[in-house]
Amino acid sequence: MDLSLPPKVTDRAFARLAEINETSEAPKALRVAVEGGGCSGFQYEIKLDEPAEDDLVIESSGQRVVVDRVSLPFLENAVIDFSEELIGARFIIENPNATASCGCGTSFSM
C-alpha cells in the first residue's frame, strides 16, 4: 500500500504556467524532475514538456504539471511554487524531504 503524498502545486505556479502557455500554439506541461548531480547530490530539472504515459499529472484550470515515477518519491509532499523577486522570477520547490540545499535553489541532499 502506497501512502506517499504527491507534490502540491500552488495557484501562483499554475497562473505563471498559463501566462507562458497563452502565447504558444501548442501549450506544454511543466515537468518537474529530480536528477543525480548538483553541488548537494540531487538537482531539480524544471522544463516545458509533453506528459509521458506513466507521469503523475497534476492539473488545474487547463494547465498541467507532470512528475515522472522515478522523481515522485523525492518530491513527496513538496510544494511547487512560482517566486518573483528582485533577483529574478522562477519556479521553486519547497521540499520537506531535503536535509540540505545549495544557495542556487536547484540542488539538495536527502
SSE string, helices as H and strands as E = EHEEEEEEEE
- Write down the overall mean pLDDT: 86
Spatial ordering of strands, largest sheet = 4-5-2-3-9-8
The description of the largest β-sheet is: 6 strands, mixed
pLDDT under 50 segments (min length 5)?
none
Which word captures the global form?
A: globular
Name some characteristics of this structure.
mainly beta; six-stranded mixed β-sheet; globular; 110 residues
Could you walk me through the main structural features you see in this protein, from its secondary elements to its overall organization?
It is a single chain. The chain is mainly β and 110 residues long. It is built from one helix and nine strands. It has one helix spanning 11-21; strands spanning 8-9, 29-36, 42-49, 56-60, 63-67, 79-85, 88-94, 100-101, 107-109. Strands 4-5-2-3-9-8 form a six-stranded mixed beta sheet, with helices on one face. A hairpin with a 2-residue loop joins strand 6 (79-85) and strand 7 (88-94). The longest helix has 11 residues, at 11-21. The two termini are 23 Å apart.
